[in-house]
Amino acid sequence: MKPTLTKVEKRISVRENKTDGILNYDIDNAYPQRVKNIVNASGTGTLCTNLFAKFIFGGGFNNKDFYKQIVNSRGLTADKLARYTARKLSLFNGCAFHVNYNMNYQVIEVNPIPFEHIRFVDVSDKKHIGMLAVYDDWGRERSRLIKRDDIDYIDVYANNPDAIEAQVQKAGGWKNYKGQILYSTPDNEYPLAPADSILEDIQTDSKSKIFKFRNITTNFMASHFVVVDEFEGSDDKEKDEQLNDFIENLNDFQGSEDALKMMVIQKKAGSENSFDIKKVDIQDVDKLYEYTEQSVRDNIIRGYLIPPVLLNSVPGKLGTSKEIEDATAYFNGVTYESRLLIEELFTELFKNFATPINSSNDYSLIELKPSITSKIESEYSQKVIDIISNKDLTPIQKKSSLMIIFKMSDQEANQLSGIDGAGTTN
Fold it and tell me: How far apart (Å, rounded) are the C-alpha atoms in residues 172 and 170?
């Protein structure tokens, strides 16, 4: 039987949303927000995405004078903007920048915009043709309703004097002009995330971790049931006190190492024994999920085209220097197009900058060298995963742990702990 188009589910459904005046980014208009939450909940997904971003940024700009240049009024440097861009490309396969001009039609500052905040304007919204809609809660994580008055409409990027002047006139003069947004996506459409084909695997990875955690924290690993007659008392409070005293004495009897391995069950007093202990055959949860966990991790790594040796995913094999060198060269090839895209974007953004900041016009990024990757792609990779997936640690605490334990640089620790180049957390 041949597959037909009607039986293949589209990964993204783009529909008109006339209520909000936009084109929805998938059915719920929350595709990028959903991708971000799914990846962040998975240790393996986070590690692979961060490694992808690390290879995109590589060794930084070839022009060492340009990387430290200030690109906006907030003091953001070119290299931090590039790191931020690499992170967005690795997560969403797209990025966005807000550009401001002076009255000579020259760029005076470039600011990164969270990719997930931008939507295309629907053609039915005649008032905002040629603009993009910017809003910080399309996923409705803070409010159930989209506050249309809070949606910001900004002109699409067009770096030429005639287009800028037309936009200024439409806005009612320079004092009302909001600048432009350079929204970079493949084919000028909502893109699929690099992890889209393995999102279900990434979600399985995170759910498996949560399942095992809950089994431990909810004490559902009792080895015996203790069946006793229902405690008698004048009221519920007295019954509860008797039950708590019984459980406390039972725990004392077991000792500290075996405490909480018995579950107490009360029954109606009757002809049966008033006290009974029943053994529980515990299902081996680790064995049950061992294959699933390993298979989804392998799928995630393959989905990103990451050579296993870079993540030490081959049991008992750390990889020789030659293997790591070959794997690094291969993954540099995988991420080449993304580095080239950043070079093209930065060339476009800064070719008309009011203050010349790159006289050589060289915006290329250097490939990552094996010596740099060796700090994280070693026998400690699983420990790195444990740290970055620990929800009890803040991004700053994760960063400090990585720098102290693994001697990572500030740049490396920032990327792995989810602190982007703009100094904010993802």
Answer: 5
- Other CB atoms within a 10 A radius of the CB of residue 292 amount to 14
Q: Single out the residue of 356, 376, 337, 388 nearest to residue 89, CA to CA.
A: 337
Radius of gyration from C-alpha coordinates of the chain? 28
β-strands 118-120, 107-112: how paired? Answer: unpaired
Beta bridge partners of 112: 97
Amino acid at 307: P
Residue 217 DSSP one-character state: H
Pair of tokens at residue 92: 């969403």
* Maximum alpha-carbon separation in the chain: 96
* Contact indicator for 319, 370 with CB cutoff of 8 Å: no
What are the backbone angles phi and psi of residue 106, rounded to the nearest 5°? -105, 145
Evaluate whether 19 touches 27 at the Cβ level (below 8 Å): no
pLDDT at 8 over 60: yes
Dihedral Cα 113, 115, 118, 123, nearest 10 deg: 120
Average pLDDT score over residue span 45-55: 95
Q: What whole-number distance in Å separates Cα of residue 226 and Cα of residue 292?
A: 34
CB atoms within 10 A of CB 320: 10
**Strand intervals (E) in 175-271:** 180-184, 224-229, 262-267
Residue 246 in tokens:
């019984």
- pTM of the full structure: 0.73
pLDDT of 211 higher than 80: no
Which residues lie closer than 8 Å to 89 by C-beta, 6 or more apart?
Answer: 53, 56, 95, 194, 338, 341, 342
Please tell me the total number of residues recorded for the chain in this structure. 426
Q: Which amino acid is at 426?
A: N
**Buried b / exposed e across 352-374, counting CB within 10 Å, b at 16+?**
ebeeeebeeeebebebbebebbe
Residue 282: is its pLDDT beyond 80? no
pLDDT at 46: 94
Helix, strand and coil percent figures for the chain, each rounded to 5: 45, 15, 40
Neighbours of 213 (CB within 10 A): 11
Distance CA 329, CA 354 (A): 38
Residue 279's H or E segment, with its range, is strand 275-279
